[in-house]
Amino acid sequence: MGKINLLDDLTIDKIAAGEVVERPASVVKELVENSIDAGALSIDITVSGGGLESIRVVDDGCGMAPDDVSISLQRHATSKIREAADLSTVPTMGFRGEALPSIAAVSRLRLCTRRECDLAGTLIEVHGGRFVRQVEHGCVQGTEIRVDNLFYNTPARLKFIKSEGAETARITDTVQRLALAWPSVAFSLEVNGKKKLITAGDNRLSDVLHQVYGSANGRLFLPLEWQGPLLKVRGYISRPSLARATRNMQSFYVNGRYIRSPLLSDALQTAYQTLLPRNRFPAAVLFVDIDTHEVDVNVHPSKKEVRFSRERDVYRQVLSAVRQALHASSLVPELGCGRAAGSNSFYPKQNIFNPGNANTIPVGQQDDRWGHNIEPAELSLRETAAGCSVAEQSDIVSFPSLQPLGQYRGSYILAQSEDLDLYLVDQHAAHERILYELFSQDVENGTLPVQTILPLTVELDPPTAAALRDKLKIFEELGLNFEVFGNNTFILRTVPLFFRNLPSQAEIMGLVALAGQEKEHLSLFEETLKLLACKSAIKANDSMTREEMSALLVNLKSAQSPYTCPHGRPTTLLFRAIAVDTHFRRR
Length: 587
Ligand code: ADP
Ligand code: MG
What we know:
Bound molecules: adenosine-5'-diphosphate, magnesium ion
Strand content: 15-25%
Oligomer: single chain
Structural class: alpha+beta
Radius of gyration: 29 Å
């Protein structure tokens, strides 16, 4: 007898389940997507024990005919496509007919369903892929699916499941992203008896954002709507002050389907460029609508990725969409105010002087708290804790014209706008921004003026020396002329004219090392320009005349991106006149 066996159906289902049903969160995703495909307007999800004990999804969708119920639990049974040609245009979330049988193969599944036109509903139970019973059953219109003891018959898979807490977090994350994708559907998620998320289903994405990320963060989003030749982008992106150390707060949907996309994530990041410090990622909920023929949704087992046929165009157009949304709004972080969205009243309960709250801003210490070391994400925490509302300003707004009032601690310009609002401008950060844009322009035009310096010798290890030899032209364009002097030795002869202090040997080495690492020229350019701007800008503790302050503020206003320095720190903070009066109890 030969060695090859044909596997029985039960074993085949268990193997397939390994692909579709990775973990409890994938069960939740598949069941909720089925509910959405069934036209549900309300979906209630209840889980316990990290989803391993029980997952229940109840919807008010179209339900199933009694004859279809047992078929739905067979492999490759789907009502959503008929032939391979339909794959390119499939409008529904599901299409492979794998989810239900895969889930049923590795759990105790109970499904109860009724269509509007049927008098009675149908109940079916399947345990570990084995049919247990199907009976007529009274139920409301829609479908209720209960999945108990997930992976009870696949101990190897159970081992890969993390703690209950980690699985619960994944489930919550999954439901949040689905709720963001479907603001017209009312979602409710209950975990171990506690409500975790409720959305109204009133088709307002901004409301769902507030539910998912909390009202304070929810107010830090900017709307985006953009139509390009290839695609349409809509949704929300965060102000730079709401950024995280991971990309967790980014959700991309292509034709309504949540996907992971390094391409879209890169386009988003590039649009923020110097608005964020390194390794900080903006939040975003972006919907990309594109002709279904331009995208392949059938490239990943759990459909988490898609492939665009014209990747470069998609990248460029999403980049433009995000840039435009960022340019359309004032990005000055606003302090000390608590303006409720859409109203002029302040939150009465949020008091920035309350010393009991660790997240509040003691006003006397403002300088330390948004000094050089502060990270924007921390800043946003404080902003939001103070009840700041910046996202809902009705702005198509440009940077304000500012009159200097004086210099605070030799480092910050106190200034007033035409509306009599109070602004604090970090003189170094502001000047860095102005110079960075000026230098970028000069470099682009090939007109960056240079000065000859006393020759500075740089000795490098062979690979770095080889990299520098390759990049000599780029450094020359940036005003840094290196002359080759022997094998691994170079002499730096010029630096840009604007340098107030010469760069140190270590800084030069840092740039040269970057030349060794970078395949792309772009970031070498960026980093060098940042260093040039930093070296040339006015420093903290440099005193300034009123004329110098005025000139700086005028130049900052005409900068393309006046809100942050090239490293992503804010240049300017706003204290509205109304907020000042309120805090002095004059209102
Ligand atoms: P797919 O979604 O890829 O079609 P599934 O295994 O997830 O495959 O579901 C099989 C079929 O069962 C679906 O095509 C649909 O007809 C039916 N079905 C599943 N869940 C529901 C539901 N909640 N409401 C109505 N019909 C459902
Ligand atoms: Mg499905």
